[in-house]
Amino acid sequence: PMATTRSTDKTTYHHGDLKAVLLDETARILRDEGESALSLRRLAANVGVSRTAPYHHFKDKQSLLSAVAEEGFIRFNRTMKAVLEQGRGKGGEQLMLEYVKAYVDFAVNNSEYYDLMYGSQLWRSASLTSTLLSSARSTLRADVERLQGLQARGLISQTLDPLRFTQVAWGLLHGISRLLIDGIYTDPASATSICETAAEMLWQKLRE
To answer: Over the stretch 29-55, which tens digit does the pLDDT of each residue have?
Structure first.
């Protein structure tokens, strides 16, 4: 729970709480109003702290956006881990379908995070933070290591290149997600069918 004390007409947050509150409010602004409405001054006013308070955590807007992207990776990895854990004992094909759907659902329903996680503005920036880069790389590496583990147990194709498969699967699911986020596909039935086809294709490749 957020710990607060009342010292003035503004709310004073404990140090650790304020950063989380700022990230949540940033995500809300991005979702409801767009990036053009975001500034550290506006953020401070919305949260009810001094104009300088956000600068204790973020040196500038770019740093703030990178931190939101990092939070997105944390939430994404938590979501996908839950899918894999809940899928234990299920058939591999069914688990693949649930994985694909969970990926696309996360991207579409959390586009304020997803847009930053894989957005060109951050990735082409000279001030890309090392922690964001590490978050993205560790997400990819975890998928590669998971496939390597399945290979070692003889559960998937021994000739499969785990890195290349992961990269292609990532590109496929990212492409589907972007089509839905950008409104190119709006029919739920079509989205479901696309996910089912993608899962079938990926599963077949794993079993070759």
So the answer is: 999 999 999 999 999 999 999 999 999
Three-state secondary structure of 151-174: HHCCCCCCCCCHHHHHHHHHHHHH
**Under a CB-based contact definition with an 8 Å cutoff, are residues 72 and 110 in contact?**
yes
Contact 58, 64 (CB under 8 A): yes
Show Cβ contacts of residue 101 under 8 Å, excluding neighbours closer than 6 positions: 195, 199
**Spatial separation of the C-alpha atoms in residues 170 and 47, rounded to whole Å:** 36
Report whether 95 contacts 199 (CB < 8 A).
Answer: no
Among all chains, which residue has been given the structure tokens 């688990």? 95
Which residues, 6+ apart, have CB-to-CB distance to 120 below 8 Å? none
Q: How far apart are CA 57 and CA 123, in angstroms?
A: 21
12 band by pLDDT with thresholds 50, 70 and 90: low
